């Protein structure tokens, strides 16, 4: 496909993103995205929230209240926006679909759908984890509506969250000093911190929409049209996470209870739990699937350089995870959020 240049666009063409709407601006990852956008200083940011929401958003963000049962409120809130960022849970497909339709009606050219996790380029993983299929469905709907283009930001699992929230995710129970290695704990995957997700989003939307002319060889937004963008903070395995934990906590291996479980057996155990109605099994099957030998947790490419992302310090973010575990972040923040919605 021939490259399109800004110089050839009609009068009035705007080669940058200025107005950004975000759903979930006060959420776990949404607040980091919103803060990173604000730090750029050149975006006008609108938080799209429900009429009844008590979510707190950063100062400097306009708030527009909507009712998902009244699509016209969504359309009105999205008029004039250059981009829509959706940070709803990937399982909230009904509202995501309503947002896509409203964005198309409002003429929003770019949508960053509710990805912000592991990529969905592996068909087998999509089938096994289910959420990958939901991501593909949302992407296809955006394309079929014919107005907006999507960009999927694929960052892997969130590092500090996944390390801190319990044995069911990355296999570590920090407070009780136990670890379960999946197989031998050496299968790598890519994982990102919340601030890295924020920086990646803000840097992506700060790119020119099109290259200026034939001599402009820098990255630009349209090169990612209807494509995933891959980035991460670390490429790491469980053994390396454990070594980092030992350094951060000042403990030795003998201070921890260490067990092993085959990743495939763990996946099947989680699947059986979920099928029997125990929702705790979903976390087991989801995380363990990305530690299979086919390495689905390794990105097919890295866009870190194009997004201007620098290397992060593993021990620094392991220390953040330790603090989160000690403060019961998952129990005090995440679990209560499941009873309310942004």
TrEMBL record:
Residues 18-151 form the NmrA-like domain. Keywords: NADP, Oxidoreductase. Pfam families: NmrA (PF05368). It comes from Talaromyces islandicus. GO terms for molecular function: oxidoreductase activity. SUPFAM superfamilies: NAD(P)-binding Rossmann-fold domains (SSF51735). It comes from the Eukaryota. This is NmrA-like domain-containing protein. CDD domains: PCBER_SDR_a.
């Amino acid at each position: 496909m021939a490259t399109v240049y800004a110089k050839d666009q009609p009068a009035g063409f705007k080669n940058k993103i200025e107005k950004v709407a975000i759903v979930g601006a006060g959420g776990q990852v949404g607040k980091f995205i919103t803060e990173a956008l604000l730090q750029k200083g050149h975006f006008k940011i609108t938080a799209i929230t429900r009429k009844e929401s008590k979510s707190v958003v950063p100062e400097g963000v306009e708030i527009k209240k909507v009712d998902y049962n009244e699509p016209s409120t969504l359309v009105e809130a999205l008029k004039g926006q250059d981009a829509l960022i959706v940070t709803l849970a990937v399982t909230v497909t009904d509202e995501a679909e309503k947002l896509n339709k409203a964005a198309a009606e409002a003429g929003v050219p770019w949508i960053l759908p509710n990805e912000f996790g592991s990529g969905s380029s592996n068909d087998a993983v999509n089938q096994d984890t289910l959420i990958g299929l939901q991501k593909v469905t949302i992407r296809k709907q955006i394309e079929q509506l014919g107005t907006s283009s999507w960009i999927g930001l694929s960052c892997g699992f969130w590092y500090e969250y996944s390390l801190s929230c319990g044995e069911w995710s990355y296999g570590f129970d920090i407070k009780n000093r136990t670890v379960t290695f999946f197989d031998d704990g050496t299968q790598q995957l890519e994982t990102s911190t919340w601030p890295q997700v924020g920086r990646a989003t803000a840097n992506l939307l700060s790119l020119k929409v099109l290259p200026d002319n034939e001599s402009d060889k820098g990255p630009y937004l349209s090169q990612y049209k209807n494509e995933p963008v891959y980035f991460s903070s670390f490429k790491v395995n469980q053994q390396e996470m454990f070594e980092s934990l030992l350094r951060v906590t000042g403990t030795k291996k003998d201070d921890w209870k260490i067990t092993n479980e085959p990743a495939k057996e763990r996946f099947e155990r989680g699947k059986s739990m979920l099928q029997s109605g125990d929702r705790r099994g979903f976390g087991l099957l989801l995380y363990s699937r990305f530690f299979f030998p086919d390495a689905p947790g390794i990105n097919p490419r890295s866009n870190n350089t194009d997004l201007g992302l620098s290397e992060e310090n593993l021990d620094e973010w392991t220390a953040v995870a330790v603090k989160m575990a000690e403060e019961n972040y998952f129990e005090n923040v995440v679990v209560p959020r499941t009873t309310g919605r942004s």
